[in-house]
Amino acid sequence: MNIVGPEGKMIPALPDLFVWNEDQVQLMSAHCQSCDTYFFPAFHEQHRPGCSRQGVQKVLLNKNGILKSYTIQHYMPPLPFKTEGNITPYIIGLVEFPEGIQIAGIVKECPFHALKIGLSMEVVTFTLYRNEQGQEVVTWAFQPTDPIRDK
Ligand SMILES: [Zn+2]
Predict the structure, then answer these.
(1) Is residue 99 part of a domain?
(2) Does residue 150 lie in a domain region?
(3) Ligand 1 center to residue 117 CA distance, Å?
(4) Number of domains in the chain
């Protein structure tokens, strides 16, 4: 598997959670072949009871998923989450990937009125702040796969 490392002016806020290139951002998961469970983060293994835990492999998830639930937050995320400015109110979405795993993240480029369960979401980056080297420190986020035109 070819893991694309951080390039250019963007660096991840935390390592080993996602990879990106010009075309796509993908979350890093792990899959247990014994119990067919996906994990996120990849190192956060919660196997089914009785699983032999054999054959756990790192995998990249599909870049698209479906919005399964969401909430609008009116308070800043707690530390260690750090941003340059106040991002409230913002959306936290729970996205289900074709692999079957559901992962939460900030939803951007989506006005609140356009939020809908079942909306197709793609994984993108979200710039938290710029560090002293001028690099954008990013985390993963979701945005509608088809841009919402009615803003
Ligand atoms: Zn397992």
Answers:
(1) yes
(2) no
(3) 30
(4) 1
CA of 142 to the centre of ligand 1 (A): 27
Q: pTM for this one?
A: 0.90
Instruction: Please write down the long-range contacts of 113-120, taking CB distance under 8 Å and 24 or more positions apart.
Output: 114/144, 114/148, 114/150, 115/67, 115/70, 115/91, 116/67, 117/67, 117/68, 117/69, 117/70, 118/66, 118/67, 119/66, 119/67, 119/144, 120/64, 120/65, 120/66, 120/67, 120/144, 120/145, 120/146
Domain carrying residue 61 = 15-144
In a domain, 50, yes or no: yes
Tens-digit pLDDT string for the chain (151 aa): 334 444 468 899 999 999 998 889 999 999 999 999 999 999 998 999 999 999 999 999 999 999 999 999 999 988 888 999 999 999 999 999 999 999 999 999 999 999 999 999 999 999 999 998 889 999 999 999 999 987 5
CA–centroid distance, residue 33 to ligand 1 (Å): 7
36 Cα–ligand 1 center, Å = 6
User: Rounded to the nearest whole angstrom, what is the distance from the C-alpha of residue 59 to the centroid of ligand 1?
Assistant: 14
Residue 130 included in any domain = yes
